[in-house]
UniProtKB/TrEMBL annotation, chain A:
PANTHER family noted in UniProt: RAS-RELATED PROTEIN RAB
Organism: Galdieria yellowstonensis
Protein family per UniProt: Belongs to the small GTPase superfamily. Rab family.
Pfam families for the chain: Ras
GO BP term, example: protein transport
Name this protein carries in UniProt: Rab family, other
From TrEMBL, chain B:
Example GO biological process: vesicle-mediated transport
GO cellular component, one term: vacuole
Any one GO molecular-function label of the UniProt entry: small GTPase binding
Domain Rab-GAP TBC stretches: 48-268
Species this chain originates from: Galdieria yellowstonensis
Pfam families: RabGAP-TBC (PF00566)
Gene3D superfamilies: putative rabgap domain of human tbc1 domain family member 14 like domains, Ypt/Rab-GAP domain of gyp1p, domain 1, Ypt/Rab-GAP domain of gyp1p, domain 3
InterPro entries given in the database record: Rab-GAP-TBC_dom, Rab-GAP_TBC_sf, Rab_GAP_TBC_domain
Higher taxonomy: Eukaryota, Rhodophyta, Bangiophyceae, Galdieriales, Galdieriaceae
Protein name (Swiss-Prot/TrEMBL): Rab-GAP TBC domain-containing protein
Sequence intervals crossing the membrane: none
């Protein structure tokens, strides 16, 4: 078993869950990142959608598993099961909709209640292309992120602004920076599933400690 | 040669449809009371109800045990209109109160929390229901207006349930085949008698009982795939919630969806869950060869262009172990186990507290 795990270098996999009010653009951000496109006619996400993508960084390659959730408050009872083993929770609000920004606190609390400090939190204000309709300033977003000590970024999935940068930023703080695995093909991933989860959790706690800078 | 073959099979299909229409119109509908529980009717429903009589047949099968009257519907519509006006007033109050971007006074916050209402959710979802069908998408279209009215009236009818994402698909589907009042009556009754009420109110123990029921049936019908899913950790929450709550509108092509609804309207929840297993069986070979990521992706993005309707319904039909009776039996078993488990859990935690 151990000799095997040395010979195959697994692709590090990370689960990212996208949370936030209805129609703030969770699906749009993911679609922009995945396919570099934007569609005006999105269907509402019901339940949960899954997508994954390999990201090639300078020093390593990571596999991101993206979980896109339904935004309506009613679905919150499902959230705990969705964020159970996630590495990152991305909380999205719409800068043209103050109510969605006010909900951020509740989303943050929800994640913290479930996972404590065990998860990397990212706050994202989307739809910056609609400058005329803006209701939440960049400073307010920053202040909120600072209050909780989490990462912050503003994006426009429609204009393609900052979406790649967002994912690169997230990737740069993912746990497990110390091992630099080679890119592998997909079949290898599921052989290594269990041992991989273990390494993820252990390095995650290291990361949490390191991250408190 | 192939085109000839294709056109002749298309011709046969047309011919069959014309024949089915005649049977429904001349034999079944005029003799409804006598035929409604017949084997013949079942066979006809599972062959797919022709679109021209679908609305009428759905209406008759669903019936109206809740005794919702057209008068009640118009009263509810009036109430809905009033609360829409209140909502619009509230929105404009917010716009005035929130003149400066930085302001976050208590009153504005209060206004916002009230704004997080069913009304708002419905507004957001209307253009996002069947976006491929432009008549729901365009704001000025009569169907979008009817859809809004139906959903808002339901919120007035059952404020304890309100509006949940997913409802708009079910309502839109009914509106495609019925006039607004009949669609509303059918909507209320359909929700009332099915798992939709549990899913739409998102009561966790209830939803879990349904998911558990699905797992049991899955295990007994498709053991190899079930074990594969256990191994790679694909859980039913990942696909069943979306499939059921959109009544398959997000998973399957529309013509297939409405044929699934034909079966669901006749046989209830059992058929919805049988369809889920039918989809899993349809993609069984691919799923068995796939990793967690590939399975999770496939299940949340079913390749609709690849679905051959007749093959899918053949798979659904072949799952004869998921009958109405057996579904009910397993559901009640799961329900009992769940309440037992909850009982034990509470007893244990109560004892713990006592000891403290």
């Amino acid at each position: 078993m151990s000799s095997q795990s040395k010979s195959i270098t697994p692709l590090s996999k990370y689960k990212l869950v996208f949370l936030g009010d209805q129609a703030v653009g969770k699906t749009s951000i993911i679609t922009r990142f995945m396919y570099d496109k934007f569609d005006n006619n999105y269907q509402a996400t019901i339940g949960i959608d899954f997508l994954s993508k390999t990201m090639y960084l300078e020093d390593r390659t990571v596999r991101l598993q993206l979980w896109d959730t339904a935004g309506q408050e009613r679905f919150r009872s499902l959230i705990p099961s969705y964020i159970r083993d996630s590495s990152v929770a991305v909380i999205v609000y719409d800068v043209t909709n103050r109510a969605s920004f006010l909900s951020v606190n509740r989303w943050l609390e929800e994640v913290k209640n479930e996972r404590g400090e065990d998860v990397i939190l990212v706050l994202v204000g989307n739809k910056t292309d609609q400058t005329e309709r803006r209701q939440v300033s960049t400073e307010e977003g920053e202040a909120k992120a600072k209050e909780y000590g989490i990462m912050f970024m503003e994006t426009s999935a429609k204009a393609g602004f900052n979406v790649k940068a967002l994912f690169r930023k997230i990737a740069s703080v993912l746990p497990g920076m110390e091992n630099v695995p080679e890119p592998t093909n997909m079949q290898m991933v599921d052989i290594k599933l269990n041992s991989n989860t273990e390494t993820t959790t252990t390095s995650e706690s290291n990361q949490t400690q390191r991250c408190r800078c | 040669m192939t085109t000839n073959h294709a056109s002749s099979s298309a011709y046969r299909y047309e011919e069959r449809q014309t024949y089915l229409c005649r049977v429904w119109k001349e034999k079944i509908l005029p003799n409804w009371d006598e035929k409604k529980h017949s084997r013949k009717l079942r066979d006809l429903v599972f062959e797919g109800i022709p679109p021209s009589v679908r609305g009428e047949v759905w209406k008759r099968i669903i019936g109206n045990p809740l005794k919702v009257t057209p008068e009640l519907y118009s009263i509810l519509c009036e109430q809905a209109k009033k609360s829409r006006k209140d909502f619009e007033k509230l929105t404009s109050e917010i716009a005035i109160a929130d003149g400066d971007v930085g302001g976050s006074g208590g009153t504005v916050e209060q206004l916002y929390s009230r704004e997080r209402s069913a009304q708002k959710s419905i507004n957001l979802d209307l253009p996002r229901t069947f976006p491929e069908l432009t008549f729901f998408h365009v704001e000025s279209s009569p169907l979008q207006g009817q859809l809004r009215e139906l959903l808002e009236a339901y919120v007035c009818f059952r404020p304890d349930i309100g509006y949940t994402q997913g409802m708009s698909y079910l309502a839109a589907g009914l509106l495609l085949y019925m006039d607004p009042c009949d669609a509303f009556i059918s909507f209320c009754n359909l929700l009332h008698r099915s798992c939709f009420l549990s899913f739409f109110s998102m009561k966790l123990p209830d939803v879990q009982i349904y998911l558990q029921t699905h797992q049991r049936l899955f295990k007994s019908e498709l053991l190899v795939l079930y074990e594969h899913f256990e191994r790679i950790r694909i859980e039913p929450e990942m696909y069943m919630v979306g499939w059921i709550m959109s009544a398959y509108c997000r998973a399957l092509p529309l013509d297939v969806v409405f044929r699934v609804w034909d079966g669901f309207i006749l046989d209830g929840d059992a058929y919805l869950f049988r369809t889920a297993l039918g989809i899993l069986k349809y993609f069984e070979d691919t799923l068995l060869k796939s990793s967690f990521e590939e399975c999770a992706f496939l299940l949340s993005h079913i390749p609709q262009d690849h679905i051959i309707s007749d093959v899918l319904f053949q798979k659904i039909r072949s799952l004869s172990g998921v009958s109405k009776k057996r579904f009910k039996h397993i559901y009640h078993k799961c329900e009992k186990e769940m309440s037992q488990w909850n009982g034990e859990y509470f007893q244990a935690s109560w004892k713990q507290q006592q000891q403290k």
